[in-house]
Structure formats: C-alpha cells, structure tokens
Batch of 4 targets.
Target 1
Amino acid sequence: MHRYRTPAAFLAAPIIFAAAAAASRMLVQSGIESRVQILFFWVIAGIMEVGRGDRASGARFIVTAIAIAGAIIAVKIYLEGIPPRLTNLL
C-alpha cells in the first residue's frame, strides 16, 4: 500500500471529485438522475485509480466514492428538499 506524506495528498482526489460532482448536479438539475451521475463519477474514479498502476489505492477509491455520493445527494436535497420517505420516518 502506498504511504502518503500528508493527509492532504490522500484527500486531494476525493475533494476534487466531490466538488466536480456537486457542480455537475447543480448544472444538470433534472436532466440526469442522481444515481446515473453517481455511477458515472464512480466509473471515472475507478479508471483513474486503475491508471495509477502500482500507486492505486482501494482506500482512496472508497473515500472518493463516498465523497462523490455524499456531494451529489447533498446538492439534490438542497435543490429538491428532503424526500417525503425520509420525512415520514422522522
């Protein structure tokens, strides 16, 4: 496993992917479903990790995937409000 010099080096890709995912969700509000956007960004993150060769990190991919999903879901809730299914649980 590759060791990182700083936490910022490990978190750079997840932060950049989360920002890009949030921006894409804001720009394409109702044109593409959220789950399709999440899948699209996961595929790009996976290709990026595979392209790193011996420096690929499964942990970084998982953190990136969580950041992508969280950013897209947060923007979706910001734009559309809390889904009725969740409000019924509260």
Note: Helices lie at 7-27, 34-51, 58-80, 84-89.
Target 2
Amino acid sequence: MNRSDGVAVFEVVSRPPSLGYVRRYPTKTALRLTREMQSTLDRINKIVQTTNATDLVVQSYARDTLLLTGSFDHCYYHEFEVHFRGVAYIGLPIYGLDSPTFSIAGDPIRHLYSHLELDADETLFEIHSDPDFRGGHRYYVAAREIELVEGMVYYYVRDELKPGERIADWVQNGG
C-alpha cells in the first residue's frame, strides 16, 4: 500500500476480517492492562523526546511479535526496543518513524478500524510519526502486549560491555 506521497507502507492483518462489527466493552483487567500499557507508552515517549534516539525502524516481525528499534544511528547500534506481542494488525512504514509519539488509539479511530474485529485483550496503538512536519503521519498496530527494553545493542563485536549493553544476536564472532 502506498501513501499519497509515494512512501510504501507495510500492512498486515493476521486474520481475515468479517463483515460484522461487535462492540466490546473493557473489563477491569483490560483497564488495568491499559494503565500499565500507558506507563510503557509514556516512557517510550520520554526517551524519544529527551534523547537523540529519535529514529525507529521495524527490526523484525516473526510469529506474532513485532520489534521496533530506536536509535540515532542504526548502522552501529540501537538504544531501545519496543516489542509488540500478540500482533493482529500492522500498518507501518518499514523504515523511518521519525520522532514518533506512541499512544492508545481513541474511540473514533478504533471505530474506523472495527473491520479488524479486535478481541477485548487487543489494543490499537497509534504511532504519530514526525508530528512537527506538516502534521506528520499516523500509523497503527493492534497487539495484546507492548514491552520496552532499554539498553545499548551494538551491531558489531565489542569488548568490555557495560551493564545494560549487549551485542545483537545476529552479529557473528569476529565481525
């Protein structure tokens, strides 16, 4: 799928939608999870606003887990990871989420995405990329969980790692 400006957008629906729309109401458990998710989203937003790790990319999508990485320089390292688990829908560019703001989509947006027939434990996340440039672009991910992992991950072999640092799993010994 392409946006009007010609940028390719990655979109995946993990199960086919039907024609029916079912309104689901949040349970106490869902509301508690939403508060926990909100604190995770607040921390992600704080990192993006207060550090130079403002560029996010899709690192991988395997099984039902989407991994976004945040960095100033994705050639050498990333500084944090955002894991979406239990993914039901992805509508993101593969590369180039600039200075994004993460939030939980409001009711009007969830209604627009009602064709996805999300389960009660699936949350529609909104990622507003580059909001300072002509209003930016809004993208969406539907998932059951979100997790933030902080720490430097190097894309090359490096000696004497500090606490919280590691070498990317895909880096081979010797280079």
Note: Helices lie at 28-50, 107-112.
Target 3
Amino acid sequence: MPATDPYPGDPPDSGGSPNPGGSTGPGDPGLADEFSTLLVGIPRLLRRRLRQELTVPRLRGAQVELLRLVAANPGLRVSAAAKELCLAGNSVSTLVNQLVAEGLLRREVDPADRRAALLRVTPEAAERLDAWSAKRKALVGDLLAELPAGDRQALSAALPALRHLAAELQGRSGEDAGEDDDSSGVEDGDQDDDQDDDEDDEGAKHDGT
C-alpha cells in the first residue's frame, strides 16, 4: 500500500464547505465521488493482494462473471446468461467457447429444445471459484478484525443500504440488456492497470455478485 492514502476522508471544513455539518444531501457530489472511488479501489486492492498467491492462469472479468452465474444457476441457457449479464448473445457465446476450451464450462443439449444449450461449470471451475472465495473471505475477515469496533459496527449498519444500491443497479442494468457487445469484461477504472487480470471476484458467492 502506498504511504499516501489513495482514498482521502472527508474534506476539512472550510468557509466554503457546502456541508459544514458533515451531512449529505441526495445529490451530494462529494459523497458520490468518494463512494465511487472506494467502490473501484477496494476491490482492486483486494485483487492485487490475492493474485500474489495465484498459481493458475488468470481469467478475464467477463469469464469470471459467467462462471459465477452458471455456478449459481446450473443448466442456465446461453440466452438467459446474456440477459442476466447484460451482454449481447454473441458475446456470451464467445465466452462460452473460451471457457469450454479451457475445461471450465460444460455445454449440454437442452432436452426440451435441442437447438438450445444448457451450461454447467466443471469440477475444476467449481474448485477455483471456491478457493478464491475462501481466500478472499479470509483476507477481508483479517482486515475487518483489525478495525476498531466502531468502524466494524458502521460497516455492518451500512450493509442494508449497499444491498439496496446493488438491487437498484441491477434493475437499471436490465434496461440495457443485450446492448453491450464488449466481452472484454474490463470494468470502469480497471483498464489502465488491471487489463486482462480481472479474476477479481472469482468464486466470491456464487450469486452473480
């Protein structure tokens, strides 16, 4: 970690501060800016730490997203995966072909419609997802244990709001389903220095998070 904190806290109160009491309004730009910075920065720092122990080839972000989704929904159709990931069908088909070739995904014929394919993760993929999840939980658990009790309580109290935010984003992303034809999986803020190494949440909960 650099000596300088990359995620500064609240700006000092000054005569021109729009929120002298530290309160935040619904359109507070300071809150949005710092929160979005943390949302990108914390996962990136976790990835960098965990990748130090990685002994297998890295997966791209979109590949991991698809593996997580299929692990949580065995027998998922390609069309359903495309809708859930908000990607074009041909982009998901490309990802499926890549993961099948790497032995991480299995494609089966749908007995109800032989023109469609059902997706399932292989034992190797499930093992990788579980291993990454366990390491990430252990790392986050250690970090939380080092925080003061008040900080841990504040994070716990913020969880319902974060879940609500995630649900809101999921709902909005559904409006654009199928319009994204980029299967790179490189997320905002990661392309510059994390391109092609987004094994970020590999196996984080198999719930599509």
Note: Helices lie at 29-51, 61-72, 78-85, 89-101, 123-145, 149-174, 191-194.
Target 4
Amino acid sequence: MDRRLKLGVLVGVALAVFLVLIFMYPLGLQALLAGGVRDVELLWQGSPASAVTLASGNYTAFCYPNALTVRNLGRAGVAYTLAFELAGFDGYLEVRGLNETVLLASGNRTASRGFSLPPGSSASFTVCLRAARPQTARLIVADRSSPEVERATRSELLLSVRLTDWYDNSYPRRLELSLAVQREGYAVFEVAGSGEVYVNGQQVGLIPSLYGTDVSSLLVVERIGGLDYPLAFQAESWRVEEATGVLKPVRLLGPGELLGAGDRLVFVAYVSNSTRIHIYVGGRGKLNFTGAVRESGSSVDTGALRLSLEQWGFRGGGLEVNLSGSIAWPYQYAKTYYSDPGSWSTVLVGPVRGIWEYRTSGASGYVSRAFLTAYSASNITLTYLWAGTVRGGIALEWYLPSWSSNGIYTVSLTCATLCRQLPVRLLGNATHAVVELCRNYYLPGGTPATPAYYGYLVLTTGSPLAQVKGVSLTVRSFSV
C-alpha cells in the first residue's frame, strides 16, 4: 500500500472517530471530558456565593429555609448525581430538601445521600446547624462518578459560623425584660396586647404594643445564669362589657389569631434579679404545651393544688378565700349583715392556667363577681374581684373579700382600680384578713341587669410569691 493510501486510511479513521464522538457526545460533554467547563453552581439566598456567614445558637438548631440552591447549568447537557461533603465542621449540620436529608453531620460522623439534577434544573435546600464554638468549614458538592465529571461539577461554599445568644433565628425581634425584684419567687406575667406588663396582678412596666401580632408567632424564653429555658404560655381574649365596664376573660386564642389591645399573653416564671425574660416576635411557632390543670365538677386540680369551688368562694391546701362577702344597710331594727351565695362557671382551661367565674345573685343589694385563675403544676391562684351594688344609698359596712391561711401561703392584695372609688382598708394579719370596702359610705347603685361596679382588686396566693417592683426593656433585632 503506498503512502498516500495509508495516509488516506488514517485520515478516514480519524474522521470516523470524530463523527462518532459528535454523534455520541454533545460538544459540551466533550468540553467537560477535556476539563474545559464548569457546570454546577452554588447560590445562597438566590445569589451566587463562595462564602457566607451563619449564626448558630446553643439551644436549638438554627435553620435557613431554602437558602442553599444547587444549579445544573446545563452546558454539558447531561444529568448529574451530586452529593454534599462537609470539611472542618465541629457540631451538628443538616442539609435537607427534595423531601429528604441529603447531608447529616453530627460530632465526628457524616452521612450523605446523592441526588439527581437534570441539565438546566436546580434544587433548593434548607441548612440547619448548631455549634458550640465559632469556626470555619467548607461545604462541597460534586458528582464523583469520574475525575473529569468531578472537576466540572465541584463547587464549594465557605461557611463562617459565629455564635449568638438568640434562642431561635426564625424570630426576627426580641423584647428583653430585666426585672427589679424585691422578693424572689413565682411570678404570673400577663402582657396586654397594648403593652402593659402585669406581674402577680400589679402593673410593673410597659413594652411595645403586641396589638395585631399572630399568637403563633410568639415565643417566651427565661434566661437564668446564661442558660435559656422556653416557657409555656397561652394567649387569652379579654373584653370589656359595655353595660358594666367589667374587664373579663372570654376564651383562649388559637394559632393564626391576632392579639387585640385588651388580650393577654400569660406565662409563669420563678424570678430573681438575675432573671431575664425574652419575648420573641415574628417567628414560626414550634412548641406545643400541655398543662396539668384539670376540673371535675366543683373541684380543680392543678397538679400541685386541689381546690374546691364553694358557694361562698374556694378553699384548698390550707387556704380559704371568701368571695361572697357581706354588707349592712341602714334602716334595720338591728344592724344585719347580708351575704349572698354565688355560683361558678368555667371560662377557659389552657396549658398555663384555667379561669373560673364566680358571681353572687345580687339579692342583698350588692354583687361580687370574681375570676379565679389557677396555674398548671403550681399552688398559685390569682383572683380578679369586681365589687358592685344594685341598691343605692348609704352602706353601713361592706366587707369583701376575706381569707384565712395556715401560714404556708403568701397572700398578696393589689387594690387596682377599686381604691380609686372606695375607701378600702385591709383588716387583720398575714393569716386571717378581711377587706373593708367602705363604712357609712354613699353608693349610687345600679340595676339587677347592670349593677354599678366600683372597680376591681387582685388577690394572689401561693408560695413563694415574687415581688417585682419594675421592668426595664431592651428591644433587639436578629442579624448575622
């Protein structure tokens, strides 16, 4: 065979091979095999990124929903089976998407699952992490089916992890309450939608309004000695009766409902001067609370205290509270004290507390209307008592309420609005006391349907009860 024929055969073979390659492999794949193309890209929150800074807390895993995107640019026109790899990280990190976890690192163990990505497509992933120290790590994605494919698909993201004292990064805002505590103990917090903060029935401060806040977007955390503990809480609807002016609890608010100005966020904490209360706002509620308060007939069991609801008031655990009271009117042959029995009805029972309404008949010319609250796994009770009259004229003596204790319980009286209308006096001692609402005092009176109410007082019992003098506020926003 002469040289020209041999050369022609070689050229023909080369041409045939070239045509076969073109037929079998697109030009993009040929470039990939030759190492001349980068075909996978990482994005963070929608933008190409090679490095990001992430915040991590000590208590819960911080999650960044759908923040990480892997994109097959499609230059080679092929699908890849990609997998994540994590280098240099100490702690917990999870990458999840496509209805499964594709990377899980915990301690010194790492598990990875591959996922397929067709040409021109992308997949978004949620990244969750928890770390005990600041650090830098590398998150790598690649298809390792061959060295050439790995070179074309390998993409890295540098993770700079910093620590924060934020409990959960899904909440963008935090209200920090620092307490001025005169006596440490248990404190019942009631935060009105309009911002007033009440502790054991007494207003101690003011925070920015929570009016219009979705109750499922709230989280309450107590910080003690640098450690955070989520607190059970409930949101309650409160309304003012137009006819009487009585502020009363109505029902529990559920997920998706918004706080009104008069509604209340309720929780209980054991507090001292070192306690901090953090109210997180605007997140995604994840905690479900179950309370211990149970009712059966005329009995209430909180898990730590059993109360019996009587016609004259309530008793339990060595404590008796008379909510019926007594009154003496003039023009009697002899001074006579009238006292009406009352009846009970359930208002609500939630994870933090239950509320029961007590009301006397008004037959003797006066009305006692009370809202008793009892707290889960606690011996605390807090009673709002409204005093009113149907009959008008001079009251010789009016006593409401009274109580006796075996000395185990602390009993605290907050006069609230009642002292603005009546010359209230507390008579007795720490274990036996009665409230004198007035003596020889003119009362305008009302009607059986709309008694004239003169305000309310709050009676708090429990052991030990905190005494909080004030609250200072700091408002913070989350940032990486």
Note: Confidence is low (pLDDT under 50) at residues 17-25.
